[in-house]
Amino acid sequence: MNRTMSELLRDNKNGWESLKEAEKQDVFQFCGDYIQFLNSSKTERLAVQEAIKIAERSGFCDISTKESLKPGDKVYFNNRGKGLYLANIGSEDITSGINFVVAHIDSPRLDLKANPLYEDADMALFKTHYYGGIKKYQWTAMPMSLIGVVYKKDGTKVDFTIGEEAGDPIFCVSDLLPHLASKQMQKKGGELIEGECLNLIIGSMPDDCEKDKFKTAVMKLLNEKYGITEDDFVTAEIEAVPAFKACDLGLDRSMVGGYGQDDRVCAYTALRAVCESENPKKTVACVLVDKEEIGSMGNTGMLSAAFEYGTAQLISKTKGDYSELLKLETFRNSKCMSADVNAAFDPNYPDVNEKNNAAYLGHGPTLTKFTGSRGKSGTSDANAEFMSVVRGVLDQNNVIWQTGELGRVDIGGGGTIAQFAANLDIEVVDCGTALLSMHAPFEIASKLDIYMTYRAYKAFITL
């Protein structure tokens, strides 16, 4: 059988060329909503709060309010305010498998230390410890907000936010002027800024007291606003994040620029896909987890038992029975998209990618068969059978998609939560939006890719 060239060779054209005008309007509308989500979800706690609002508008309720579950029930499990497990119960027996889309909602940032406040050179500053893989020099001379929670001595919880509202003060880490930076500029990039130098400037006006004048002035302001004392920082989680808002990028507004798109771009698209599911055959679930950027450890990370606990609740309340064997059977029959970003090819830095296997902006979500680094270390490496299933459902639903690796062999690599789902005997593959400037305070995504990522998840959960 003779085939045409278009049938024989891979079609690698830009996705925008395939969209009709009405579809482009859908893209822009969806991404307008996404930008609003980004701007209200700069921390994992805020992301959970916003996700619950979206879920409840779609008919989801807290699973603790349900003694039993039946097909069509929509429930969520809130894991300590920093993780979320949503499920729409399908008509098939739950042990036939769950279609999972799992994303993480933590992002690189600066965390305040337990004893952050000090003064030096007639200034008050906060000590920080950076969270996740960052280029430390990118976090200097940039407006920062402070967002988090504080628990006072009496156990009262205080929500803490400064820098997000119009008229709020903001904060920053200072940088060294080029006139005095000759020695600094001779250092390697990773040594330009030391971790202990990522200190936030928070004040420079003294209080009228004998000692600790600048610390005291700051604590008086914080006590007046939040009722907290310096000791309360020990029982606080406060994150320093970029103060600017996510926005349209480019004269054609074809991209989104903003903080935290790794991985809230996949979290939002996965959330929307599952919230919009109706009468599924298999139970579908969106799981949003914390701590991925530091290895998925902790009781809100993917490595904790919380994921299994949420699944166990679904099994128990749908079947009226539970056993370890039922859980293992459910996982073995389940399918999962590890919803995480990949790196888009950057023409400013072409040498780090192998062009045939790089992701490109505007070509749809990136299906990543394996991640890891140097010999595929730390990856689950999706099998060909499952890749075929996923390829088929994306093509059948006219999803524009691509494949890609995270950089050249022996240069690139990275980890996702796919390996942890695979360790539970779940079929899993990575699929997510490609980004420019990943892990920088300002990341870039194509609006077409964002929308098609959402379409890919909607298609996948119908399997």
From TrEMBL:
<dbReference type="GO" id="GO:0008237">
    <property type="term" value="F:metallopeptidase activity"/>
</dbReference>
<keyword id="KW-0031">Aminopeptidase</keyword>
<dbReference type="GO" id="GO:0006508">
    <property type="term" value="P:proteolysis"/>
</dbReference>
<keyword id="KW-0645">Protease</keyword>
<keyword id="KW-0862">Zinc</keyword>
<keyword id="KW-0479">Metal-binding</keyword>
<dbReference type="Pfam" id="PF02127">
    <property type="entry name" value="Peptidase_M18"/>
</dbReference>
<dbReference type="GO" id="GO:0005737">
    <property type="term" value="C:cytoplasm"/>
</dbReference>
<keyword id="KW-0378">Hydrolase</keyword>
<comment type="similarity">
    <text>Belongs to the peptidase M18 family.</text>
</comment>
<dbReference type="InterPro" id="IPR001948">
    <property type="entry name" value="Peptidase_M18"/>
</dbReference>
<dbReference type="InterPro" id="IPR023358">
    <property type="entry name" value="Peptidase_M18_dom2"/>
</dbReference>
<dbReference type="GO" id="GO:0008270">
    <property type="term" value="F:zinc ion binding"/>
</dbReference>
<protein>
    <recommendedName>
        <fullName>M18 family aminopeptidase</fullName>
        <ecNumber>3.4.11.-</ecNumber>
    </recommendedName>
</protein>
<dbReference type="GO" id="GO:0004177">
    <property type="term" value="F:aminopeptidase activity"/>
</dbReference>
<keyword id="KW-0482">Metalloprotease</keyword>
